[in-house]
Amino acid sequence: MYDLSTRERALALLGQGRSLNSVSKETGVSRAAIRAWLTRIDPLPRMRRTPCSRCGPVPEPPADEAAYSYLLGLYLGDGCISPARAGYYLRIACADAWPGLIEACAAAVEAVNPSGRASRVRAVGHTSVVGYSRHWTCLFPQHGPGKKHERRIVLEPWQRRVVDARPWEFVRGLIHSDGCRVINWTTRTVGGEPKRYAYPRYFFTNVSDDIRQLYTDTLDRLGVEWTRGGVHNISVARKASVALLDLHVGPKH
């Protein structure tokens, strides 16, 4: 008998486009067993009977709006949804340099996933946090063919209400996926002598015009001043604005 985490890991690897043969070699599980899990893996039968908040008679936002807003930011930055035999895999790629981010991401996936489950798939330099559900396309209607920056990314009205209610979690998710906090250096002349100063700064970089717009619109509502630091880059360097991001976001860890 293989435990559920082994089964989930094997299916997550398949969801990456790997062959049955390569997944079998990596996990030590027979191809026959993995093939059988595509149609039956506990607790998938129960999960199929569990509707998400968007599939009920009266569609509602996810119960944990804070977790959803954070996960939405992560998904728009480093996430993807891929089809499986009976549902979908949500995958968020997290750099191994930030173990705290991996744990925060897994907690958000568990809170939003109707099954309450998340698994971790390790690769070179990063860990993918993976959740299986029939309902990811209900919860993230931005899913579609092609790369995000090659298609329109627009929030549904219910998503907008969640982001408006939980804006800092959304900003935190975006920065945790495609942003960073850095220390910049500058030199000023004081009393005829050059002095070197250090100051913190936040960057957010995404090639999607729509996703950058969602980020800057949310910063505007929060009173955070920002500037464009290049074609695809948004910079926050004003002392008061950096202090706000330090309070609500902070550096990745």
Write the layout of secondary structure elements.
Blueprint lengths: L3 H12 L4 H8 L3 H7 L6 H5 L16 H14 E5 L4 E8 L3 H14 L6 E5 L2 E8 L2 H4 L17 H9 L1 H12 E12 L2 E13 L3 H14 L4 E2 L4 E4 L2 H10 L5
Antiparallel strand pairs: 1-2, 2-4, 3-4, 5-6, 6-8, 7-8
Give an overview in words:
Helix 5 (65-78) packs across helix 6 and helix 5 (65-78) runs parallel beside helix 9. The protein is globular and about 75 Å long. The chain has helices spanning 4-15, 20-27, 31-37, 44-48, 65-78, 99-112, 136-139, 157-165, 167-178, 209-222, 239-248; strands at residues 79-83, 88-95, 119-123, 126-133, 179-190, 193-205, 227-228, 233-236. A hairpin with a 2-residue loop joins strand 5 and strand 6 (193-205). Strands 1-2-4-3 form a four-stranded antiparallel sheet, with helices on both faces. The protein has a four-stranded antiparallel sheet with strand order 5-6-8-7. The chain has 253 residues and is an alpha+beta fold. Among the domains are: 1-42; 170-248, Homing endonucleases (Endonuclease I-creI), CATH 3.10.28.10. The two termini are 37 Å apart. The relative contact order is 0.13. It contains eleven helices and eight strands.
